[in-house]
Amino acid sequence: MKKYLLLFILFQFFIVKLDAQCVYQTYFQEGFEYSTALSGIIPGTLYQGTPQTFCPRSGSRSFYANFQNGFVGEFYNKSFDACPNAQMRFSFWTKDCFGSTNNINMTIRDANGLIISGPQNVFNPPGGGWQQIVTPAFFSTTSTITISMSTVLAGGGGNDMTLDDFLFEICSDPNYFNTTNDV
């Protein structure tokens, strides 16, 4: 029993030490400050396919997710280049913009389809304020990751939400990088 307790304590110390050494650097940032098509939106899922001026957090536009009536399922799927074996995290801000309940799931997969983060449930109460969603740190063994978002509530009569200020970060500690595959 003491052996397992010691291993547990050492494991906890090691994880805390790893996180303490990490300084995240911005790898990709998206503020949606344009009026052309949103990259990653699955056609037929939202009424608008471009950033909207309604309900931005920063700047003048945001990713306004106005789900089509009756739609449930995946509405966003976008791939990003990643550094194999690097510690990474993804974050964004979200808010209800229509006085209704929003509920989505976010999953991050590597190029082999393996889930490396999530599914993470994102819930916005009616009229709630902005909240930042930050994934736990994750690693990928492939050079590409895919971020997927799905609504679990049917569109129509509300369920509109806005997402803004996407941020994909990579730990700058060289101990996390595969020296033959640095980004």
Class per helix and strand makeup = mainly beta
Oligomer state equals: single chain
Estimated helix fraction: 10-25%
Count the helices. How many? 1
- In whole angstroms, the N-to-C terminal distance is 43 Å
| SSE ordering | HEEEEEEEEE
What is the residue-averaged pLDDT? 82
Q: Give the total of beta strands.
A: 9
- Strand residue percentage: 35-45%
Unreliable spans are 2-19, 176-183
Please compute the radius of gyration using only Cα atoms.
18 Å
Largest sheet: 5 strands, antiparallel
Indicate the overall shape: globular
Report on this model:
The protein has one helix spanning 2-21; strands at 24-30, 63-65, 73-81, 88-96, 102-110, 115-124, 131-134, 144-151, 161-171. It has 183 residues and is mainly beta. The radius of gyration is 18 Å and the shape is globular. The chain contains 1 helix and 9 strands; from the N terminus they run αβββββββββ.
Briefly say what this structure is.
With 183 residues, this protein is mainly beta. Helix content is 11%, strand content 38%.
